[in-house]
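A reminder before we start the practical. When you read a complex entry, don't treat the lines as separate problems. The point of joint prediction is that each chain is placed relative to the others, so the output describes one connected object in space. Small molecules and nucleic acid strands, if listed, are placed in the same frame. In the example below there are two entries. Take a minute to note the order of the lines before looking further.
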Amino acid sequence: MTIFGWGVFKGMMVTLKNFLTSYFRKPDEGGIFTVQYPEEREKAIENFRNFPFLVYDGSPEKIRCVACGICERECPPKCIHIEMEIDVAGKPTRKPAVFDIDYGLCMNCGMCEEVCPFDSIFMDHAFEVTAPERNEGLVRNKKELSKSNEYFQKVRPTLASSIDQKRKAAEEKKKAAAAPQGVGGQAQPPQGQEPK
Amino acid sequence: MEIINALKNTDETQILEINFGPQHPSTHGVFRMTIQLEGEKICGLKPVFGYLHRNHEQIAENLPYAAIMPYTDRLDYVNALANNFGYALTIEKLAGLEVPERAEYIRVIMAELARVVNHITVIGFMLNDLGAFFTPLLYAFRERERILDLFEEITGSRLMNNFFRFGGVKRDLTNANLAAIQKIVSKFPAFLKEFEALLTKNEILCMRCQNIGVLSGDTATNAGITGPVLRASGVNYDIRKVDHYSIYDRFDFKIPLGEKGDVYDRFYVRVLEIRESLKILEQALAKIPAGEIINKKSLPLLKMPRNFKPPVGEAYGRVESPKGELGFYVVSDGTPQPWRYHVRAPSLINLTVLEEMCLGQKIADAIIILGSIDIVLGETDR
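Here is the predicted structure of the whole assembly.
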């Protein structure tokens, strides 16, 4: 039989111990770990995904997206809208004329990143997304979504470099395949494959 | 003056009906209870829910199978991985997909970490409802944050993980991840010890919780209650032991049981369950084999989710979510979308005995009884 109130006393000792040791311990061992957010920032975790963006190589005209529309169809909340560019002859150019993503609707699931066969759409780290207006304000168009490969390398270095390697290898293979057979002999490489 | 005198001379009191919620912070979301009070005693209680209804089932019936996975995260947003687990299990049953060994281990590790997160959150919030204002909750959140950081590193998101795939998982655990999990697992018992010293023997907590909101084992069984609420009433029923789904039969762990079925038992069973989860984690981390993380057959489905058409039939898959039996019922008619999709949400079914537990108790205790059931409105209202 213990004294009534012993449990309360012991509990208070725990809080006192935590209060005092928080000044001496390291942040990950029970010390003070508050991050003064706008001034200080935590190191971003590479796999963190937020909103999608489009990757281009070199200049924004060389966007990797070919407007195949797979992400548009697979997107669970249907927040992507794509229209293919058509040149003067009325032929589709395999480039998006319109590429809109409604960030207000996007639920950050990462499905577009997974299904994209052209390594063109990826999830960004930017989470401070605001808009002055509720309906149209959060819709991002092609120009705003396009970001350079360097930016991609910066936010997700591991994934970006593995994808760069993959693309390089595929290009070399394509070159090697095209060289002995001449131009236009081979059927379209997987790059140009149109989805059903 | 005459009225007051008249009231003084009679013992009869007026029954007062109050609406508790839906914007009350202690209802863990948007939940309303219509309570009939006689003085301070509860003589009637009706739970009213549906404020967070988002048409989950109907949305799912219009989506390809794989696209439902991120939506299941939003059911019970405190432990999204258990929902992923249940849904993946159901579809694997429906389509007859095998899961590689390593993926099974990763699944169990992630699900048990999610259980730890869920229980620690529930305990913290319950103590907060009791009046232990924010200190225990923040201690709990400090530990939770470490696990959530790990989730962010592995799955890409802290809460909406979207990590499981049909026939495997999305991403492999690296050795660094495994070491981080091991570190958390080995440090956690010290935290639990501190947490128990903080409150489990606290006289005020015992007085507020013991013999409050008693739920007998018979009532619980008849009402279909599952999870820690049922086990606190002394009924030994855990789907991990009953069904042996995934690879749970390979681990050695006990099912903690309560005696009386009061609020204190429900609180303490959860503390003990964290210890058992840590045991499972230890064993899984020691035994995790190398190998593939996803079934070869389902690899093309990752690139083309719309082409996934399970054979005509139906399947019911269930897991022991931290809140109880979480079941998914899916009927396929051979098209890319499910013909019928139903979720058996443990929070909703556990709520049905709320009136039974609250009758005769004081109004202040209704809050902790509700807190001890552990509801998440995202799952209740769907």
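Discuss with your neighbour: Chain B has one domain: 7-381. What might explain this?
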